[in-house]
Amino acid sequence: MQGHIRQRSRGSWTVIVDLGRDPATGKRRQIWRSVKGSKREAKALLVELLHQKSTGLDAPSGKLTVAEFLQQWLKAYALPNTAPRTYLRYEQHVRVHLVPALGSIPISKLRPLHIQDAYQRIRDKGLAAKTVLQCHRVLRKALQHALKWQLLARNPADAVESPRPERYEVPVLSPQKVRGVVAAAERTRYGALVNTAVMTGLRLGELLGLRWQDLDLDASVLRVRQTCQWIPRQGFIFGQPKSFRSARPVALSVATVERLRLHRLQQIEERLAAGLAYSDEGLVFTSTAAQPVHPSTLRGAWRRLAKEAGLSRLRFHDLRHAHASLLLQQGVHPKIVSERLGHSGVNITLDTYSHVLPGLQAEAVARLDDLLANG
Hints:
This protein has 14 helices and 8 strands. By secondary structure, it is mainly alpha-helical. It has a 3-stranded antiparallel beta sheet, with helices on one face. A 3-stranded antiparallel beta sheet has the order 4-5-8, with no helix packed on it. Strands 6-7 form a two-stranded antiparallel ribbon. A hairpin with a 4-residue loop joins strand 4 and strand 5. The N and C termini lie far apart (81 Å).
């Protein structure tokens, strides 16, 4: 028997886990822990101790805390299984918010009320509801692994009402405003980048990871095969697209193909002018030294050109939204838009751009009226 529970008295239990015989002495080894409380709490501790025995989690007291578990989860799951920026975000939420609020609590004693109170304390710091929601998602995901690893009998985060941040309404840009942004970008070295972002809907990491070998300009198509992200203290990290559907072909318009051909010629001229100092990695969009575009450099240039176009609050990521909105306004089927954006399903597209659809529905019923009235 690997472990069992003995009742000592009313509300008092002993949890015993067998560790096998000591290889050196041959003596039987056991862990004995006392629990004052319910039998359910004793069973939870037994599950925790058995898991520690099987996985080698370092908690010799038998009281694995939330902080210890979260650090182990980051190391065992998040680091090898998530993208670098995702891991960085998880680690930051754990270190800055979750450990200070919940870290000292034994994971076997973590209750929904503890979590709800922690979220309120995070809000009391003046942080946005979106931050609290991100903390909730990280904690719930981590505790789901605690459930799989038999550290918990149930996930206490499931019983907590998740925070509801204000919904970000995607801006709908008119064709005139989009043309203004593109024109302003053409007066910088980022003209081709902004043009391609508007005309393809690619994410910034996908654009910065795009290589010439991923483009077939004769066939008017690009294929998203890698991403490029800047990670502090690590530098530029190249990786796979974020999901299966993110690795996708994207058709290019005639005008976009011509703009990319011109950009290619300009890049070749830069290479010839730089000579041996030019380090060609085959990327489509680069700095003057042929290195990946640094996010801080792009942010500064973007703020200036967006202000010049009269859209100072516009984010670079909003170009992706502009691409989707303009296609939907032109009557392109949401499924096609979803595929171009690399969404995991068309429902995400419909939910994100639902504010665009009411106008399309009004236009649709007007056309139906006209069809029935005039045949």
